[in-house]
Prior knowledge:
This protein has 265 residues and is an alpha/beta fold. The chain has helices at residues 23-37, 70-90, 103-116, 138-146, 175-178, 190-204, 208-217, 232-240, 248-260; strands spanning 4-7, 42-47, 93-98, 123-124, 149-153, 222-226.
Amino acid sequence: xxxxxxxxxxxxxxxxxxxxxxxxxxxxxxxxxxxxxxxxxxxxxxxxxxxxxxxxxxxxxxxxxxxxxxxxxxxxxxxxxxxxxxxxxxxxxxxxxxxxxxxxxxxxxxxxxxxxxxxxxxxxxxxxxxxxxxxxxxxxxxxxxxxxxxxxxxxxxxxxxxxxxxxxxxxxxxxxxxxxxxxxxxxxxxxxxxxxxxxxxxxxxxxxxxxxxxxxxxxxxxxxxxxxxxxxxxxxxxxxxxxxxxxxxxxxxxxxxxxxxxxxx
Length: 265
């Protein structure tokens, strides 16, 4: 078992009313996490939301990095890594990694760690699925060269790739019954793209969830695909993806669908 948790920062109001990540909030957040988890250490401690902002969660449409101050970003990274080093020395965390990060940001973490002898990040938790493939660009190259793999969240696109919302259905108790847009994922482009992937799975005789998860697991930069389940049946289906290797025909069909529907949300 590998136990991971996060400090959330300004993007998610979980610590000190959404205070930005700093050496102070890291210590406070970790105190609370260890108490709630009833453990004295975690294997992986992650930075959930960047102080400088992020293009994730549908913010890619208006993301503007020109507002960032380069020196301040690097100073912040140094402050964070110094605080995390103290926690590593105390034995309260073993490894670290950012989340919702960019290729440039990952490289800054690596550069500061190398130059200052501070902890090196080992992973990056970003969204990745058949419907969300930003990672295929610069981050895939960073992963390849630096050995920092992706921990994909929402590999089923909040359940969309299961097909349960097809035909306009919204099952009772589903995420969409609580959040109609699924965090901005529901657009007019979403359903044609989803139908294309569901057809590939059907034509190949595959469970669509297993196909979607197997696709993620087969990517060369993938460390893990993080899924949720609310029943043992869902869990068994998801775990079955670990034993599935997609055929060349299925992978070719997926590549075509991606070209036809490159940015559904």
